Amino acid sequence: MGLVLNHPELFNDIGDVVRMFDPCPVTLTQDRTGRVLIHEVKKEEDRWRQRAELWEEGKLTAYEEREDPIPGGRPLIQKRIFRRAAKLCVYDLMRKATGKTLPWGSLTGVRPGKLFRDLAGQEGPEGAERILRETYDVSPAKIGLLRRIYSEQKPFLDSTDVRDVDVYIGVPFCRTRCVYCSFAAYAGVKEDLKTRYVDTLLREMEGVWQPLGDRLRVRSVYVGGGTPTALPVRELRRILQKAHALFDPMPEFTVEAGRPDTLNPEVFAMLKGEGVDRICINPQTMNPKTLQIIGREYGEGEIERAFDEARKAGFSWINMDVIAGLPGETAEDFEKTLARIRQLAPENLTVHTLAIKRASELKERLREYALAPVTEVERMLELSCETADALSMEPYYLYRQKYMTGNLENVGWGKKGSYCVYNIDTMEELTSNLAFGAGAITKRYFKKDNRIERAPNVRNLGDYFSRTDEMIDRKIKLFDPSVDIEGGRTYND
After folding, report:
1. Nearest 10 degrees: CA dihedral of 280, 308, 394, 334?
2. 200 confidence band (pLDDT: 50, 70, 90)
3. HSE on the CB side for 300, CA within 13 Å?
4. Predicted TM-score (pTM) of this structure
């Protein structure tokens, strides 16, 4: 579909709305022939007037008109409201043209919980529910989910301080690369390169923390990837020991153990001995056929074996990840995975909906895979809610991704008292985040303006090795007390 816009800066926002109704390629154009959506905004003295039209081969098939008052306040706030109004106009047009209703209504953002919280701060939780229902067309089920998450998160978010920072330590290595993966992760890497990576990572961590540590307070530390346990035990131990040397006291220390083919009693003993209190053992699926399809080489029963070894090592906080909508899977297959997870009874369960990322093998070879229809994936999410209820879990964080099946969501469930603070802080973006390693993204939160500035690390390993000092300098400058620039800072990789 072609998009004809008199405000081209809205292309990504409007394109996201169009793709929710029709997953077609969209292009910015001035050609009004063929299949075209025309969106025009006129700014008058105190309001924006919009008109959106949908044309098919020279015939007007639907249109929508809307006007919104221009609010007072800073230009950054006006820009956000302008974008939101444009998306609502196009959403109403597409709903009218297609007759479709969407569970998340007109919301395209990654973090709908942030909108709920902002609205609740202005109108109270009941007012937030009303606005999401009447203005954004969000379904009652999704509004109810947001309300539950808001209640669970509130004590954690109310306790944040401007000095607080969460620490992410990235290890971009895996045994094999899953077909759906788009992360900066490398498979089949030799041990000498892994050692060089750890050397560089430790230098980056120390180089940043020495000038900043006195002004910051660590709220959580999360070692993720990739698969951190794909490192030799001695190298992962070096990372954990450096984390203690720099960041203690750490109220929460998590390692994403991930795949069972990287786990054994020696690994669990080392993690426990180095003070790790939370781990993730992530099956994604418990169906052997699907494991082969997605590129995981371990066999049936390996997840249970790893889980049992973790319990014997003394881990009482374990998270497990599953993905709804994996190639070839039905709701019945997904239910079998959930049944085995219920038997293991982890403290946390993260339920992802398959997202087809541009950098993944799945995207490149999409025609080779049989994907479940949206109704089947919706049923999978219903089954995951039933499993969470059976395990006495509450939803405590939620996020969405582009190119996600059915425009649905990922939900983190947990037993009360077991919530991962790092996950809450990362998803809600009310706390700064110091991120180390190739491809990691540091974020500084500016409370006054409720905004984030980012300093990304380079993804390529060679660039990371040669540009470490640059990565260190980016973070130090970002956390300079004098930095307060409206609109954010931009770095080029």
Report:
1. 80
2. very high
3. 8
4. 0.90
